[in-house]
Design a protein that fits this description.
mainly alpha; 5 helices
Length: about 160
């Protein structure tokens, strides 16, 4: 289920608060919440999510571009090695040197491609770690809001008690 759907469900639960609380806390018939704060929090969460999602998409696109460039560079190097080896096929010594050089170029291209891939993966990992931390903060905010709703305390008062 996507986050937008979950937020819509949370909003629906806020609209039907007495039914929602009746199922969660059977001993209470009704619970009063500050609807303006509740819906304002939902809107802030919605506003913050698209930027983080766009950031993740950009990271994926950047990684794909880097990998594509690495593959293109590798293909160019391999093609250059093939062309060079074909030109040097005239005698055994030249052929042996050409093969050795072609293998060295191919080996070097693979090393460079692996390095580029590792750099792209590390960059993506770093950005995704930052994204994960931002999402965890958002989830913590949601949980605090739920706790405040469950305890009947306004979210602002609960935050002051923790400081």
């Amino acid at each position: 289920m996507d986050i937008g759907s979950l937020l819509d469900q949370l909003e629906d639960l806020g609209d039907a608060g007495d039914k929602w609380y009746h199922h969660l806390l059977p001993s209470f018939n009704r619970t009063c919440i500050n609807a303006e704060q509740f819906f304002d929090t939902i809107n802030k969460i919605r506003a913050s999510l698209p930027e983080e999602v766009r950031t993740a998409e950009e990271i994926t696109q950047q990684r794909e571009r880097v990998l594509e460039e690495a593959h293109e560079e590798r293909a160019k190097i391999i093609e250059a090695a093939k062309q060079q080896s074909e030109l040097l096929v005239s005698n055994d010594t030249v052929v042996q040197e050409a093969r050795r050089r072609a293998e060295e170029i191919i080996r070097q291209a693979r090393i460079e491609a692996e390095g580029l891939r590792a750099d792209a993966d590390e960059y993506a990992r770093t950005v995704l770690d930052r994204l994960e931390a931002a999402l965890e903060r958002s989830i913590a905010t949601i949980r605090k809001g739920r706790e405040a709703l469950d305890t009947g305390e306004p979210a602002a008062e609960q935050g002051q008690d923790e400081d």
